[in-house]
Each structure stands twice: as C-alpha cells, then as structure tokens.
Write a structure and sequence with these properties.
- With 187 residues, the protein is an alpha/beta fold.
- The protein has a single domain, classed as CBS-domain (Roll), CATH 3.10.580.10.
- Helix content is 17%, strand content 25%.
- The chain has 6 helices and 10 strands; from the N terminus they run αβββααβαββααββββ.
- A 3-stranded mixed β-sheet has the order 1-2-3.
- It is globular and about 45 Å long.
Amino acid sequence: MSDTSVVLKDDRLSAAFGMLSLDDVAGNADVFRDQPALPIVVLHGGAPVSLVTAGYLLQYPHQTRLGSVVATLPPPLVVPFDVNLDAIPSSAAFRDFGGEAPGAVIIGGDSVIGIWSGATFTDLFGNIQAVSDSMLPGTVDFAWIDRLCRYTSGETPCEYAMKFVSRPAVMPDCPDPRQLGHHEFAW
C-alpha cells in the first residue's frame, strides 16, 4: 500500500519547499528571504514547470514576472509519489532530460508533496548504468517534464505547458491558448 507518508520517509526527499505561480512576480519570493537555499517549485496551471531556489528569484527586480525568469531554465522531472526513487534513472524522461533537470518534483494526485534536488539527485548521473541495469529492463514512462513553449509573438510569450516523457524528434503543434498564431511547440 502506497501513501505519501511512506514516500517522504526517504531521506533523499524534502517536504521543505515553497511554491509560486508562473504569473507571480519575483518580489513574491520575499517571504522566503531568510531561506535563500529553499527550493521553490514554480507552477503553471498546476504543472511544476521550474525548480529554483528562493535566492535565485530574489536577485531579480520585484516586478519581474516569474514566467520571464524561468522561461529558459530546464524544467524538473515530475514523478508520482508511488514510484521507487531508485527506478528514476531507468525512465525515458531521465534519459532525455535528467542531465538538465535541477531535480525531481514528487506529486501525489494534483499536489506537490516533495522535491528531490541537490547532491543526492545529481549523484544519480554517475550511477545511471548500475541502477538502470539492476532495476527495470529498458526504459519506462513513469516520469515526465512539463515544459513551457518558448514561442513568442512580439513581446507576448506563449508559455503553454506541455507534458513530455521524452524529447520528440518532430515538435508537435502547440495548442496556442493565447491565440498568438499557429506554431509548433518551441523547445
């Protein structure tokens, strides 16, 4: 039986993090000023599209929209809470995005329940072969990223968050919710 309290007992995970919206401004990170190393999950429509520290956000002018701050940063891996963390290197998402990802955001349903970042996450890159050979055969699709479309029309960014389990060879069309004009998803 899986529940979130079991997963968070893993000492690699942290329940200490902040959350802000992509539409917030950098000044909203002031509430975390006394914790500059605190990880902040930036959400867009409930999807975790960025994982940064409070200190990173605090270096920007207060009125800077977070969408413009995190637009060029690599997104975190998103992993359901009932996945064995040791299996993450065997996922297609880790293979394609793990080297860029600042960490993993652990979700339970529609809620962020923990994060995995720092040295214990980056140490995975040195152990990919050993872990993936002993865990699940091949690659599996239990992890993903929620990446923002980087297309812009004039000064207006698209910022549609699309889920990817691996990097597509050909980019799909973007749903274009802001009606900026037909375009492929801009990586």
